[in-house]
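Q: Here's a chain of 74 amino acids. Please give me its 3D structure as tokens.
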Amino acid sequence: MIKKGAIVGSVISAAVGAAAGAAGVALADKQSRKKFVKVVANITKRAQDIGSYTNKRTEKTVKRARKTLNAARK
């Protein structure tokens, strides 16, 4: 099973990466670059958190469904 959260996370990080590439030209001076890197790092971390949360939810749902099915089978 492909983990949905991982996909969500990677899509968000990819979007952030693209934005960073586009804005890279504008970030010539050091100060704004530092700030931008910090922001990107935050967003990426957030994306990973969202991803892992989604994974946990999916796993819980699957577990519950399996439990119900097994109970119904008996």
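Q: Can you summarize the key feature?
A: The first helix runs from residue 4 to 24.
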